[in-house]
Amino acid sequence: MVQENKTICWANSDNYEEADIVIVGVPDQSHSHSTRMGTKLAPIAVRDASNKRDVYVENKIRSIAYTNSGKSNARIFDYGNISRKEITKTFAKFARDSKIPITIGGDHSITTPLIKAFAEETKPISLVYFDAHPDFLSSTRDFYGSVLYDILPYIDIKSSVLVGIRSPEQEEVMNIQKYGIKVISPQDIQYNGIKDTINEILKTIGKKTYLSFDMDCLDPAFAPGVSVPVPFGLTNTESLAMINEIAKHGIIGMDIMEICPPFDVQDVTSHLASRLIGEVLSSIKDQQKTSKVKKQ
Hints:
By secondary structure, this protein is of the alpha/beta class. Helix content is 31%, strand content 16%. It has one domain (21-283): Ureohydrolase domain (Arginase, Chain A). It has helices spanning 42-53, 87-96, 111-119, 147-150, 170-179, 186-192, 194-204, 236-249, 268-283; strands spanning 21-25, 55-58, 61-64, 76-81, 100-104, 126-130, 161-163, 182-184, 209-214, 253-257. An eight-stranded parallel β-sheet has the order 4-1-5-10-9-6-7-8, with helices on both faces. The protein has a two-stranded antiparallel ribbon with strand order 2-3.
């Protein structure tokens, strides 16, 4: 574990054992095929943006910005950064310790070992996958475009949903049809409305839900600093409404991926990622553990 100079501003505990939620960065882009590189810089960029944009200092008193869901009641610990090769061991530990990890990538392929590590301890997993792309290629494996196919054995496909999809390849369309996963596009949200969309997601997912959020699900107007921007995306407020309700429903973990700081505009994407994390943290209300430390 390598601790950055700054922890994310939302952290309110310096004790892993007592924490309900852990923030962890995975600064790795080794399985990306994007022409835009730089996602390995995202964990420190998001932490930095959180401390610059979501902290207020008045009369030498430091306070953290409130979110739409109010102040989190959870104990939140910033675990620092880990390498890709440390994921399996670290996340299996989080699952055994009943921690809820919020992971900052890195390219989206990082989700694959995260899900595999969780699946060893927690089955079945419902997946809510926010992305402009389905990441459902099967002809090429073990990269950021094959995540969904790579984790098929570890998730319950019938209680999972793809949100924000608008740029699939033909092979991905065929896999979506073959495996029958639910897809909600930005256009679907415009037609059906955000309330009906949220109800459809909550009706689909199970009790053990993992939330994976690729920042390119958002329209580039809101998140320009991503690896593969695609027009006609989700708005920031639509995303806010959906992730808040999913987090209130209950999640076992979340990741936020594909922030690409070298292509950002005045850190707006990193700042938005920080606020989305803050919203999830404050929406997780009743998942505190009854026991923090096992009896010796």
